[in-house]
Design brief:
With about 260 residues, the protein is of the alpha+beta class. The protein folds into two domains: about 200 residues, Bira Bifunctional Protein, Domain 2 (BirA Bifunctional Protein, domain 2), CATH 3.30.930.10; about 45 residues, SH3 type barrels (Roll), CATH 2.30.30. The strands form two sheets. A seven-stranded mixed sheet has the order 1-2-3-7-6-5-4, with helices on both faces. The protein has a five-stranded antiparallel sheet with strand order 11-10-9-8-12, with no helix packed on it. It starts with a strand and ends with a strand.
């Protein structure tokens, strides 16, 4: 793929870990690692990130930013870039769950009511500073390509959905990867210039759950019940509860649909 140096590996502990090691050792920009199997893949909040061989796209991209560039909202912006790429491959109806999940309607095994949302993939971003005034963001992306005997990405209560169920065309891993890298090249360049504000409106339009009641799980173990009213230009979620407005930053906060 023009612009990216791609390492294709049969097995690796973690694509994010491999790129972080490279970034610590020296400049690491426009570098991609993709693998068939991760033996120690990671997700958000310390969750295991597991995929059966051949059923998921597991990759990480390294991109250097100047240290003065605020990376707030980067995971949300990458979500927008990802659904742009998938839409270009004919995948419709994708939604983004704040701050790092890609969802789609799970039409299997429901009772005729509105089908639930399932998890198609997730994003994990880690950073490392270098001595040249730069900071490397390592962007890990996992996408379910096809079904597996057991759930391939631990989904925090959401069932897994896969691309083969969302399009009539069988999408091969490398074709999906190529599409992603095209959009990441364009999108990350734009993010470096304008931050999340350039992606804010598009993220809001693609947001999952809309005006539904949500439960936010807070770092101290508490929960907050409310509705999304906004997402800020730096990627924070504004939730309206009976106690007023609350601005939530990503990190250790997770949001899910409230149980009825």
């Amino acid at each position: 793929m023009p612009g990216f140096l791609i390492d294709k590996l049969a097995t690796v502990d973690s694509t994010n870990s491999r790129l972080l090691q490279m970034a610590i050792a020296g400049a690491c920009h426009r570098r991609c690692v993709v693998t068939d199997v991760q033996t120690a893949g990671r997700g958000q909040r310390g969750r295991q990130w597991h995929a059966e061989p051949g059923v998921a796209l597991l990759c990480s991209v390294a991109w250097q930013f100047h240290r003065v560039c605020a990376l707030d909202g980067l995971s949300l912006a990458v979500g927008v870039m990802t659904i742009r790429a998938l839409q270009g491959l004919g995948v419709a109806g994708l939604q983004l769950k704040w701050p790092n999940d890609i969802l789609a309607v799970d039409s299997r095994d429901h009772d005729g009511s509105s089908p639930p949302l399932g998890k198609l993939g997730g994003i994990l971003i880690e950073t490392v500073a270098s001595s040249d005034g730069m900071r490397t963001a390592v962007i890990g992306v996992g996408l379910n390509l096809r079904t597996a005997p057991r759930p391939q990405l631990l989904s925090g209560g959401l069932s897994g959905v896969h691309l083969d169920a969302l399009t009539a065309t069988v999408l091969h891993r490398d074709d999906v990867l190529d599409a992603l890298l095209v959009h990441y090249d364009i999108g990350l360049t734009r993010f470096a210039q304008d931050g999340f504000a350039a992606f804010r409106d598009e993220w809001w339009q693609a947001r999952a759950y809309g005006d539904a009641m949500l439960t936010a799980r807070l770092p101290d173990g508490g929960e907050l019940l409310g509705k999304m009213t906004d997402v800020t230009a730096r990627g924070a979620l504004v939730l309206s509860s009976q106690w007023g407005l609350h601005t939530l930053v990503s990190g250790e906060v997770s949001v899910r649909a409230a149980r009825s």
